[in-house]
């Protein structure tokens, strides 16, 4: 997986139980995945159509550092699937602990919002990467 994003949990991001509000983490994951999808498919016209189950494995507190990793796991005719992992990063040791993971699907759209094909060269590149 490639590093997509880094965040610092701020006091404004904390929910009523003293942990990072889950909706904020969901937004960070979606933003990181969207950046990967648009860059990978070389188009700004990618739309989130699915975010898989999110299991919050460990809490995040104010001041914690977070790293979001991701990789493209499938390229279809109009869509791309991405695996995501959020990890708490320890500044002192460099250790990372998985706090959440999920899968997302994005679809390429045209100017009218209709799904449209991803370029053949992108699918071919993905397939050749799988064979290695």
Could you explain the architecture of this structure?
The protein has 2 helices and 6 strands. It has helices at 22-41, 120-131; strands spanning 2-8, 46-51, 55-56, 65-75, 79-89, 96-108. It is an alpha+beta fold and 132 residues long. It has one domain: Hotdog Thioesterase (Thiol Ester Dehydrase, Chain A, Roll). The chain is elongated. Strands 1, 2, 3, 4, 5 and 6 form a 6-stranded antiparallel sheet that branches. The mean pLDDT is 96. It starts with a strand and ends with a helix.
Which features characterize this protein?
about 130 residues, alpha+beta, Thiol Ester Dehydrase, Chain A, six-stranded antiparallel β-sheet, 2 helices
Number of helices: 2
Structural class: alpha+beta
Supply the CATH architecture: Roll
State the low-pLDDT regions, or none. none
The helical percent reads 10-25%
Output the CATH topology: Thiol Ester Dehydrase, Chain A
How far apart are the first and last residues' alpha carbons, in Å?
A: 16 Å
Ordered list of secondary-structure elements with their pairings:
Layout: E1 2-8, H1 22-41, E2 46-51, E3 55-56, E4 65-75, E5 79-89, E6 96-108, H2 120-131
């Amino acid at each position: 997986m490639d590093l997509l994003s880094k965040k610092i949990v701020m006091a404004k991001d904390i929910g009523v139980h003293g942990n990072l509000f889950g909706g904020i983490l969901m937004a960070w994951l979606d933003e990181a995945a969207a950046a990967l999808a648009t860059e990978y498919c070389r188009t700004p016209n990618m739309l989130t159509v699915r975010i898989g189950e999110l299991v919050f494995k460990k809490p995040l507190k104010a001041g914690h550092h977070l790293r979001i990793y991701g990789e493209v796991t499938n390229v279809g005719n109009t869509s791309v699937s991405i695996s995501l992992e959020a990890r708490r990063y320890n500044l002192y040791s460099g250790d990372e602990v998985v706090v959440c993971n999920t899968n997302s699907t994005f679809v390429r759209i045209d100017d009218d919002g209709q799904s449209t094909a991803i370029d053949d060269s992108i699918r071919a590149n993905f397939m050749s990467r799988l064979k290695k």
